[in-house]
Here is the input.
Amino acid sequence: MNDIRVLLVDDHPVVRAGLRAMLGDFEGLTVVAEAADGGAALAELSRLHTLGEPVDVVLMDLQMGAGMDGVTATGRIKAGEAGQPAPPVLILTTYDSDADILAAVEAGASGYMLKDAPPEQIRQAVLAAAAGQTALAPAVAARLMGRIRSPEPVLSAREIQLLELLATGLGNRAIAKQLFISEATVKTHLVHIYGKLGVDNRTAAISVAAQRRIIRRF
Amino acid sequence: MNDIRVLLVDDHPVVRAGLRAMLGDFEGLTVVAEAADGGAALAELSRLHTLGEPVDVVLMDLQMGAGMDGVTATGRIKAGEAGQPAPPVLILTTYDSDADILAAVEAGASGYMLKDAPPEQIRQAVLAAAAGQTALAPAVAARLMGRIRSPEPVLSAREIQLLELLATGLGNRAIAKQLFISEATVKTHLVHIYGKLGVDNRTAAISVAAQRRIIRRF
DNA sequence: GCCACGATCAACCTTTCGGTTGACCCTCCG
DNA sequence: CGGAGGGTCAACCGAAAGGTTGATCGTGGC
Here is the structure.
């Protein structure tokens, strides 16, 4: 049986070397290419596709320095920009905030692992992704489960998106412009957010959201 | 001539594997031990010291999940807790905020590299550290120079105190009550804080202060 | 088909915040 | 001694944010 062909996407040479060494030690896995950001990843995928050497799994970081970020890249891969059929994308990143996880899942990622995971867990996730299954880190899975049957009110994806802009210090007008909606809508969302988080102003909302890891920590 | 003996300290197995593979490819370097956090690093150093196999360079991450962070560990190593003479500590991390760099330098680090650096640069830095020299990533060096030329305005203790209450989501009235001062005074302080941080509202102030680690992160 | 719900927008009003000016007191330091 | 700088307070004004009501639209479930 042929090896599972993996593309590594991470802006840190150190991490790429680590994954190469780590995955190379396993039977049945081969790292066929690497990319330092989302744009390079798309190019690599296209190149390999036209060569008739398709990739079985993309292992992708989310934060990528200056280049195209992982969520954007995942969305474009899934849109078929680098050839059909689009390979499964397994996210491998450092953070596990609700915002990151939701964005990745919505972009079409088929798994979400954390970099502090033991090697064997990462290998299992790659195998699962190659088999068309979904693989979530235990911490991530727990977080998603908690979202489903939690007594606490659940924030919608849009509300979380707003919350993140809020945390950068933008005013309502600026947030409205960023999201291409009216200021009135921003205010409506904020009222909902305040209600769900049990606060009554934007700074308190940021504080609570950061503490509950609804948004990425500063 | 004997190899330079390196201790790796990083909470991510992936990163440790990468550094091990990367440094192992170079002549004159040997990774003799690894640790997943500051506490384990101190233990490893002590153990190797009593075995008569001292470490020449410690390669240390700053953010270390749950365990002891890199700055604290560096300080304690330099205090001689893991045996004298204390080996040089080279910081290898993802972030290059002023607060991180300054804290590391003050703790006694003899270098500060970023994880997105090319392998050769990291090798050079390890060699420099082993030789008792200082090695800074270009981006880090530039940042330090910039600080000297135009030193950032310094927040007073009272202003930082205010900033911390601000970050909990309190309004001006509540902050005033908490500090036993009038609301007018709170507003005066806020205007000063905004000026020093280069922002024009309280949420942006929190964002900037958290990023520069003027206040503790959420 | 209808209902629930999220997302969108508008109008209105109250409260808070941001920004300014000017003032007083204290301590540290040259 | 006298200035510099931090901390305190007041009054004022315009801008922004908070809060309410009500409405439309689309999607997904029953």
In short: Residues 4-148 of chain B form a domain with the Rossmann fold fold (CATH 3.40.50.2300). DSSP finds ten helices and six strands in chain B. The beta strands of chain B are 4-9, 29-35, 57-60, 89-93, 111-114, 135-136. Chain B touches chain A at residues 11-22, 65, 92, 94, 115-119, 122, 166-171, 199, 201-208, 210-211, 217-218 (CB under 8 Å).
